[in-house]
Fold these 3 entries.
Entry 1:
Amino acid sequence: MTDAPHTLVLPRARPAIANMIAVASGKGGVGKTWLAITLAQALAGAGRRVLLFDGDLGLANVDIQLGLAPKLDLGTVIERGLPLDRAIAPTPGGFDVVAGRSGSGSLATVGGPRLRALADDLAAVAPRYDHTIVDLGAGIERTVRQLAAWCAMCLVVTTDEPTALTDAYAYIKLAAADDRRRDLRVVVNMASSPAEGERTYGTLLKACKSFLKLAPPLAGIVRRDARVKDSIRAQTPTLTRYPTTAAAIDVEAIARRLIAGK
């Protein structure tokens, strides 16, 4: 695993918001959005007040996976200068959501002033909830990292694919460069077994220790589960459609650890 190329460090415009959790990945296809949705529902099922914010400004798809057709989305809020809470909508999963604009890359180039205004809006809304989960876009672009900088914790999702591991390492490298104190944790998704998930995490951890002098802890391992794909196709959360399936149980375990502060 090679070191990531140097990229300009971003200043943090405001302190991180304590109850905000970013869900990130270095690349697409690792189940990041599915994890964000399932974690939101798992936390809500445990009695927590949860807001899921679709922060994929390029290719939002939380609404698609949930089968929602929101009256207002994040794109409308940004374009019209509306308060963010106008776009908050309840879901059948027991949590609230701010949907992005699916199928449009137009928000990926949102400028710094509007992003800062959005951060102010999120800071005002977040205290209404126990947890605000931000589903970031895949990659390490400027807007992704600025959104992540608002969150006190970041769950970096990876799989055992070599490219997923390399890109997760690159994300951790740049996130740590932006702020060395950031609470970065790893979720291994689509693991063939818990033991395989531990090995995948060990590979990433070794690279982080060797090159970055960092040891991001393991937030959890989610087993590969064919019912996940079926629930996504059905536009129904996995915890609703298959509440006792392996992947759902694994995400609930991650939620319990987060609630316990572990």
Note: Confidence is low (pLDDT under 50) at residues 2-12.
Entry 2:
Amino acid sequence: MPQSGIQVKLDRSGKVTIFSGASDIGQGTNSLPAYLISEEIGCDPRDCTVVVSDTDLTPVDLGAYSSRGTFMVGLACVEAGQRLWAMLAQAVAEKWGCSPAQVDAALGTFTGPGETMSFREAVCLAEAKFGTLGATGSYRTQKLGGDYRGGTIGASPAYSFTAHVAEVSVEPKTGLWKVEKLWAAHDCGKAINPTLVEGQIEGSVYMGYAEAAMEEMTYLPSGLHRGPSLLDYRIPTSLDTPDIQALIVESNDPNGPFGAKEAGEGPLHPAIPAIANALYDAVGVRLTELPFHPWKLLQGIQARQASPQTHVDPSPVPVPRADERS
């Protein structure tokens, strides 16, 4: 069954209504259908209304996970848009006496051999020819997974690539360290909305930095979490967050919508080893257990000073209780 579905309704007023079950948690799936449908059928994206995440109205979408939003929702949009375009182009071509292949449209204006027409007029022609206009599109995962439970989710048909550089400063006497700047270059295929892509990269890099700097799950002997709320669970504030430079590297993925692929999770992972490598380059201590607390780094520095020729990896080490930490 489809993992993601899209329904599109055209109105003779020239307005477009798009129904999507995808949940937008920052990745842009509330606006993505308007971009892609308008690109396929030639309307102005400002004439699109996207109805989202209403299970009474929208088709099924399996959720915001596994970097699937732009890829799967986008391909469903492309399929629905192509079906509508076939009807619109045929109706307009008959009016102009040309081939459908000679009809083009963008931002609400249809063009052909010496002819122009508004999107609204084209919709009226197509509705008169075909009846009430609507189309659906869906994405079905290719058979790439196994026959085990969860295998039907399917392996991703597209993979992104990321390279990070971290600049850190270290105070060897205390083990205190600070990330001065992080550069993240991410191959996201085609950046359909560059502003959203930059935001996704920056958010992911922030999460990776936070895991390296302070986020951790520690428990009392009773099994209760030491930080059961966001008041107790430490995350970096805007004052703690280093300068992050997001660099979009565009390519053309042959399987993605207009060549696009993920930019939501991939940029998280390299931030951690980039910071670890920078710390090692600075003081020669290799940390392999998160978070990179200053006391861990200080232990490694002291051990290295005691045995300069020895490769130092102080992790894993017993985690002191919160009330024992200075």
Note: Residues 4-143 form a domain with the Aldehyde Oxidoreductase; domain 4 fold (CATH 3.30.365.10).
Entry 3:
Amino acid sequence: MPLHTADALILRTYKLGEADRIVVFLTGDRGKYRGVAKHARRPRSRFTGGLEPLTRARVAYFEREHRDLVRLSYIEPVCSPIVSRSADALNHVSYFAELIDEWTPEADPNHKLFRLGASVTQALVDNVPVNRLARYFEYWLLRLQGVYPSIVTCHQCGADLSHGGARVVPQEGVFVCDRCGLSDGRMDLSVDALAFLRVAGTTAPDRLTTVRLSSNSDRELATVHGRLIEVHLEKKLKSVRVMRELSPTSR
């Protein structure tokens, strides 16, 4: 029963028995695992402080052959979004973690996705504006999965989208121009929204504080990304409903 150590992102936990927890975590080198944290629900548990969603940690676990669950030995937090001063940022933590969880198969290494999640955790700690970070994260998550549409040219006629905006065809997962989308004059993504995506494609999360994103563009991207995510996952995310209920703008 070998002991493995790894850098990991904690994605979620749930109760097991009277005192234990199941921990879902993504490692940087071996993919996603589920492990038992013995006595994690006790007041003086050695896992205290390391089980919050999107916490980056150093983990050690025993893997047994023909067993789905590993056994966690320790979780040492390295960086946790819980220290963020922004309530809105904390409301997004479970959303980011759920997206990573839904898109990551068990024990399938995806170092790029791990790096994306780790960089977003650090950006939350550094108080990067959460709306920009959320749109950035959604864009890169879909892009890493190979399902983000071209933001350069219309899928139908090849027209340049940067001058007139784009309409989304969610069932096909593509962007088209005004003419091909038979638009009524309203575009799903404005020129400004597409400009944000172009910058996001070449910018690290910690530099988003200098990137402009208007409230209109933010709403456009949130709506379009929500459609694309639902189409590809074929489900609604639980964290989206919770996040909306906790958002200050919904009160």
Note: The longest helix spans residues 215-233.
